[in-house]
Amino acid sequence: MSQLTSTTFSKILPSKTQLIFITFIFLFTFIFLLNFPLTSTPLQQHSPLTSDIFSLITPTASNQNTSVFALPNEPNYVAPSPPPVTVTENESSPTLRRSCDIFDGNWVYDDSGPIYPPGSCPYVGGSFNCFINGRPDLDYLNYRWQPHGCDIPRFDGKKMMEILRGKRMVFAGDSLNRNMWDSLICSLSAFNIRGTKHIRPDEFTYFFKDYKSSITVLTAPFLARHQRTEGPKADEKPMARLHIDEIHDTIAKYYDADVLIFNTGQWWHPANTHNGENFFQEGKAYVHEKLDVEEAYKRSMNTWAQWIDNTINIKKTKVFFVSLTAVHFIGGEWNANGTCDSTEIIKPTEPTKDQVLDPYQPWIKNIQELVISKMKTPVVYLNITRLTDYRKDGHPSRYRMPGYKWFPGMPQDCMHWCLPGVPDSWNQLLYASLLSSSQNYM
Q: Who's near 209: CB < 8 A, 6+ residues apart?
C-alpha cells in the first residue's frame, strides 16, 4: 500500500525539466510586468498620430460610451482642435511631398485658370454662377491654395472616380455643402465625366453608370429632424420644430454610404431658430419654451455624434466634417445693408480676424471641434475656416442671381461662393485626402 502511495505521489511531483521550465516562465513574466505596468497608459503615448492624411481622432477612456459630451462652462473656453489633416510623400502620388497640415497655408497667384472655365458648367446653381450673373472681373479665379511645406495634387476627375468606383458619396448639410457638391460635379464634368441626375425631396443625385457610382447632396441644414406643424389655432401660421435629439430622417437612409460629408452651422443663427423660443424639441412632445441656441447646438451635435458612433461601420464608411466657412458682410448682415463687393483678398500675412466671422460662429466651431475630438468613430475634419477667411473676394456679393440688378440697399450674398472659385479648392483637398488614403482605406 505504501509503495502504491509513493509511486502515485512521485508522478505528481514535477520533474527537473519541468521545474526549469516553470522557473523560466516566472522570470519572463516578472520582467514583462516591470516593462509594461498594469496601469493604463493613454494610447497616444504608445501610438502617436502619424502623418497619414486620415489622422484619426483617438478616443479616451472617458468617451468609450455614447453619453452626451459635456462642454466646460467657462465663457472664454476654447475647444481643443481635432488633429490636423496631413499629407506625406507617396510614391504613387509624387505631387504629395513631405508631411504638412494641408489646411495651413496661403493663397498664391496662379494664372493657369480654374478647372472649368467660368460659365461653362451647366450644373452650377444659379446663385453661384457669378460669371453668368454679370460679374465682370475674373482675377479672383487666379489663385490656388498652397499649404506650407508641401504640395497637393491638382484635381484629377478620372482618378477621383476610380477611387469612388462602385461607391456612394453623400453630402449632407446646408447650402454651403450644396456649394461644394456643385463644385465637385462641375470639376468632374471638366474631365468629360457626366452623370444622370435624379431628384427627390431634399435630395439631388448624379449617377455615374460607367463607374457604378453616385454622388448625392441632401438638404439637411441642421442635421437634425426639422418639422413643420400646424399652429394651435386654425388661422395661425405653421410652426417649425427642430428635434435636436433626432438625426434628420433623410440622412438616416444613407448610413451605409461609403463616404459621408457633413456640415452644419450657418443656420444656427438666432434669427433662424426663433431665438430658441418654442423651436427646439426633445422627446415626442416636449418643446422648450426657451432654450439657448448655443446649448441646443451642443445637444444636436451630440445627437449627430452618437448616431455616427452607433450606426456607422468604420470598415466601410469614411466620415468627413466640413468646418465653418467665413462670411464677410461689412456694415450689416445680408438683410441689413451688409456688403462684400470687394476685389481684394486678405493678404496671407494678415492674421485671421474673428470679427470677420459672424459673432455667433466661434462658439459653433468650438462645439464642432470638441464633439468630434471625443467621438469613437474616426472623423476627418476639413478645417477650411482660415482658408476661406482670406477670400472675401470670392462671394457672389451683388451677382447673386441671373438678371439681378443691384443698387445700394439691396441684399448681397457674402456667405456662399462663386463657381468656379473657392469651393473648388475644398474639393481639391478632399481629393488629396482620398487619393492619399485610397490604397489603405478605400
A: 195, 196
Which stretch of 171-185, 277-291, 356-370 has the lowest confidence by average pLDDT? 356-370
* 227 neighbors 236 (Cβ within 8 angstroms): no
**What does the alpha-carbon distance between residue 334 and residue 328 come to, in Å, rounded to a whole number?**
10
Question: What are the residues facing 106 on neighbouring strands?
Answer: 146
Lowest mean pLDDT, pick from 84-88, 246-250, 417-421: 84-88
Residues belonging to the chain: 442
Please enumerate in sequence order all residues whose Cβ is within 8 A of that of 116, keeping only pairs 6 or more positions apart, or say none: 186, 187, 189, 190, 420
Nearest to 107 by CA among 387, 368, 333: 387
Q: What is the mean pLDDT of residues 188-199?
A: 95
Distance CA 440, CA 32 (A): 33
Predicted local confidence at residue 342, as pLDDT:
73
Residues 304 and 368: their CA atoms lie apart, in Å, by 11
Cβ 180 vs Cβ 322: under 8 Å: yes
439 Cβ contact partners less than 8 Å away, ≥ 6 residues apart: 92
198-205: Cβ within 8 A, 24+ apart: 202/250, 203/250
How many whole angstroms separate alpha carbon 135 and alpha carbon 338? 18
Report the C-alpha dihedral over residues 162, 429, 259, 321, rounded to 10 degrees. Answer: 180
pLDDT tens digits, 391-422: 999 999 999 888 878 888 788 999 999 999 99
The DSSP 8-state label assigned to residue 271 in this structure reads: G
Nearest CA-CA partner of 325 in 389, 274, 273: 389
